[in-house]
């Protein structure tokens, strides 16, 4: 009976590997292995630790989670985010005392309406990470994907606000760091609320271009 039901569901809801399109599997072993974390640190005023390069299999899996509603892939990306957070926390706690709070970058209202979930929060929960939603968006911004670095910074300037957080030491979480515009805005908002932002951790990072800044 179970096999018959599985076959029927496969006909109605065909599944393919998010990384390579192999049929009848959400993520094949080869693509799962490609998501093994290799954390790198992007230096800057606020250093960013990222576990994967945003290319190939990792990029396809993250896009499938973000754009195709394949929420089960959050479990497959959880190890990467957890590894980036572990590296960031170890570095921060080695240089100063005190706990840190993990604060996800907020999802825009339009993106939340479209998806029905918050990508970073979902992956963090799958990783067993405790987060605090200090940040929220206070105005809409344009889609960042077609924008250059300077356009991205202008686009997200002033879009976030943080709850009061005097003296709270924060590591910001995001899915992908690109030019640094989104993370820079998150840092600005948190600092304006009194927080001390000591680093950021992301699932993946794009290759840095000349003149790029750390952040998302």
Automatic annotation (TrEMBL):
Domain of life the protein comes from: Bacteria
InterPro entries referenced in this protein's UniProt entry, alphabetically: ComF/GntX_DNA_util-trans (IPR051910), PRTase-like (IPR029057), PRTase_dom (IPR000836)
Domain Phosphoribosyltransferase residue range list: 84-209
Coiled coil: none
Family in the record: Belongs to the ComF/GntX family.
Protein name as it appears in the record: ComF family protein
